[in-house]
Amino acid sequence: MKRILIINANPKSASLGKVMAERYANRAREKHQIELINIGDMQFNLNLEEGYDKTTELEDDLQDFQQKLKWSQHIVIITPVWWGGMPAKLKGVFDRVLLPGYAFKYHEGKSIPEKLLTGRTSELIITLDTPTIWYRWIQGNPIYHQLKRTIFDFIGIKNKATHYFGPVISADEKQRERWLNRVEKLAN
After folding, report:
1. Residue 143 phi/psi, 5° resolution?
2. Where do the DSSP E strands lie in 59-165?
3. CATH superfamily of the 3-186 domain
4. Per the database record, which ranges form the Flavodoxin-like fold domain (predicted)?
5. pLDDT tens digits, 88-107
6. pLDDT at 113 > cutoff 90
7. Which of 6, 19, 102, 122 qualifies as a FRET site for 28, CA 20 to 30 Å off?
8. What pLDDT does 51 receive?
9. What is the pLDDT of residue 55?
10. What is the C-alpha to C-alpha distance for residues 21 and 61, in angstroms, rounded to an integer?
11. Among 93, 14, 15, which residue's Cα sits nearest to residue 47?
């Protein structure tokens, strides 16, 4: 039995991503311990105003996020692609909670930090309006590179799989249901 944290990164109150997160959670709950976070429900200041120069008190929702991330063994992020990358609110969560001493730690004389969230895996479920082949191969797949290489690799989380669903904008209900069924299978 794994401890799985599912993050719906679409801040909209109703979205395909939210339904995917709920379907994933319901299926995974049959075999695992589950925590589900809807980024849109969180209340916090997105801006890390002083960078790491000054400690900023974390709001309750960010403290809760940190605790659930620390608790988890596997993290599933279900995110749309907006302007080639992740929604600002997800980026704001990462900026605010993946702090020195929590997610990484620099040691004097070394430019590569110690990774403090090792032992965890991740899975990315990405929705987009652009055709997936165009996004991945022509546009360069920026959300994958940012999440996997510049965030997770930096803090010690190993990405096990990435799944793409799109284009959402032109998908009919039948196609969306096929995607939802596929997401349920991923939760096994």
Report:
1. -65, -40
2. 74-80, 104-105, 114-115, 120-127, 157-165
3. Flavodoxin domain (3.40.50.360)
4. 2-185
5. 999 999 999 999 999 999 99
6. yes
7. 102
8. 86
9. 84
10. 19
11. 93
Residue type, 99: L
The closest alpha carbon to 59, from 98, 93, 102, belongs to 93
Identify the helix (H) or strand (E) that includes residue 133.
helix 132-133
Burial environment of residue 150 by CB neighbours within 10 A (0 to 12, 13 to 18, 19 or more): exposed
Interstrand relation of 33-38 and 3-8 (parallel, antiparallel or unpaired) = parallel
The residue behind tokens 């620099």 is 106
Region 117-129: what's the mean pLDDT? Answer: 98
Tens digit of pLDDT for each residue in 156-172? Answer: 999 999 999 999 999 99
Decide: residue 171, CB within 10 A, 0-12 exposed, 13-18 middle, 19+ buried: middle
pTM for this predicted structure: 0.96
